[in-house]
């Protein structure tokens, strides 16, 4: 593989990322078709998951595809779904070589796409930029292999890790640029998730605003007893933008009907130790097709996800403000004794955003 192979695959990866947050339950795949030294087709998985990336790129390339190379971030599919398999489409179009970043673990594909190409005499190479593809497709991979969406946990805090003063004043700790970045992050996820305490305290809307983005993530709220105000912003907008409420089995039936009556989708989940079981919540969200969930707190939900090992990525925004011990901590108690029991993450990015620092971390698998 050459430097230009890497360059084309990086382009395919960046095209694929355009589909993040809007392709679920399908992966956000990217595809580039190159004839000689000319890019003749570009594609990415379309909103709702179809058409697939290859279909778009092949259509764009037209007759120029004979003998060309296709760069795809995920193994082309081998199954007859609502569309014929992409592997067959690539073969039929006369593609001579296919470079793939990562195999597709979906049991309907799982090596079948590569085998089809191979059997048809197409030159197949895999593994180029596999780590980048694994990071971009983490949500899809997580759902296929573990049955749950990946979880990105966001925390915006003071220098000393506080999210509000003792009186609850929290607007704003980070600056406008960091808050804008949060909206961009929401847009790359299928859903934004919060706990009931945050829903009550902040009365958030949880939409993507100010970026010219038309797509909105699903808004997920966890509330064991459904003790949420029916005149909140979430409730008032539930007819126009999806709101899913995860609640316990003993929530009052009249509250379940009140919320479903205003347009919310009700998701009943099991409880553990006096709270909704975070693993059961995520399995229920995975079963409904979610692959990427962006959790914006509060401290109890964040701590329970972390304790259960269910946070895949941390995104922190740290502001140069000091609040002190009486301020509200970003995480509820986690009951840790030894440091060796604490969930660990590896740093993947740091960046200055406005006057704040962004830091991203990926779960360390032990
Ligand atoms: C590709 N290119 O752009 C995507 C693929 O329900 P279907 O028929 O659309 O198939 C969904 C499966 O196809 C999905 O689980 C994954 O294995 C693959 N996604 N494959 O060749 C694409 N998005
Ligand atoms: Zn396909």
Overall shape: it is globular
Number of helices: 12
Return the structural class.
alpha/beta
Oligomer: single chain
CATH fourth-tier homologous superfamily of the largest domain:
Dihydrofolate Reductase, subunit A
Indicate the percent of residues in helices: 25-40%
Could you say how many structural domains there are in total? Answer: 2
Low-pLDDT sequence parts: none
Q: Please name the CATH topology of the largest domain.
A: Dihydrofolate Reductase, subunit A
**CATH architecture name of the largest domain:** 3-Layer(aba) Sandwich
Q: Which whole number gives the mean pLDDT?
A: 96
Q: Which strand order does the major sheet show?
A: 11-10-9-8-14-6-15-18-17
Which band does the percent of strand residues land in? 15-25%
Assign the CATH class of the largest domain. Alpha Beta
Radius of gyration of CA atoms, rounded to a whole number: 22 Å
Number of beta strands = 18
Query: What summary fits the major beta sheet?
Result: 9 strands, mixed
Pathway: Cofactor biosynthesis; riboflavin biosynthesis; 5-amino-6-(D-ribitylamino)uracil from GTP: step 2/4; Cofactor biosynthesis; riboflavin biosynthesis; 5-amino-6-(D-ribitylamino)uracil from GTP: step 3/4
Cofactor: Zn(2+)
InterPro entries: APOBEC/CMP_deaminase_Zn-bd, CMP_dCMP_dom, Cytidine_deaminase-like, DHFR-like_dom_sf, Eubact_RibD, RibD_C, RibDG_C, Riboflavin_Biosynth_HTPR
Organism: Aliiroseovarius sediminilitoris
């Amino acid at each position: 593989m050459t430097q230009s192979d890497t360059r084309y695959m990086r382009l395919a990866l960046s095209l694929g990322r355009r589909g993040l947050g809007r392709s679920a339950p399908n992966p956000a795949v990217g595809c580039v078709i190159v004839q000689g030294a000319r890019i003749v087709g570009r594609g990415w998985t379309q909103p709702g998951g179809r058409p697939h990336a290859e279909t778009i790129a092949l259509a764009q390339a037209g007759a120029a595809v004979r003998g060309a190379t296709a760069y795809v971030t995920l193994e082309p599919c081998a199954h007859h779904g609502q569309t014929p398999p992409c592997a067959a489409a690539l073969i039929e179009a006369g593609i001579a070589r296919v470079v793939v970043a990562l195999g597709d673990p979906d049991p309907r594909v799982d090596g079948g796409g590569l085998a089809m190409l191979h059997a048809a005499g197409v030159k197949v190479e895999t593994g180029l930029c596999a780590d980048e593809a694994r990071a971009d497709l983490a949500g899809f991979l997580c759902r296929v292999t573990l049955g749950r969406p990946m979880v990105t946990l966001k925390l915006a805090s003071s220098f000393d890790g506080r999210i509000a003063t003792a009186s609850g004043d929290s607007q704003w700790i980070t600056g406008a640029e960091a808050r804008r970045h949060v909206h961009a992050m929401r847009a790359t996820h299928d859903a934004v998730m919060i706990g009931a305490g945050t829903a009550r305290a902040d009365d958030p809307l949880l939409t993507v605003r100010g970026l010219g983005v038309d797509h909105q993530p699903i808004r997920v709220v966890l509330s064991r007893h459904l003790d949420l105000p029916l005149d909140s912003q979430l409730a008032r907008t539930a007819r126009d933008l999806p709101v899913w409420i995860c609640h316990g089995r003993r929530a009052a039936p009249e509250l379940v009907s009140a919320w479903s009556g205003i347009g919310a989708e009700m998701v009943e989940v099991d409880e553990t130790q006096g709270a909704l079981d975070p693993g059961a919540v995520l399995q229920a969200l995975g079963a409904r097709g979610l692959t990427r969930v962006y959790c914006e707190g509060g401290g109890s939900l964040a701590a329970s996800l972390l304790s259960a090992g269910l946070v895949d990525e941390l995104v922190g925004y740290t502001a140069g403000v000091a609040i002190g011990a009486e301020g509200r901590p970003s995480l509820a108690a986690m009951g840790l004794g030894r440091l060796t029991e604490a969930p660990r993450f590896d740093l993947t990015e740091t960046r200055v955003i406005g006057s704040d620092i962004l830091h991203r971390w990926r779960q360390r698998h032990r």
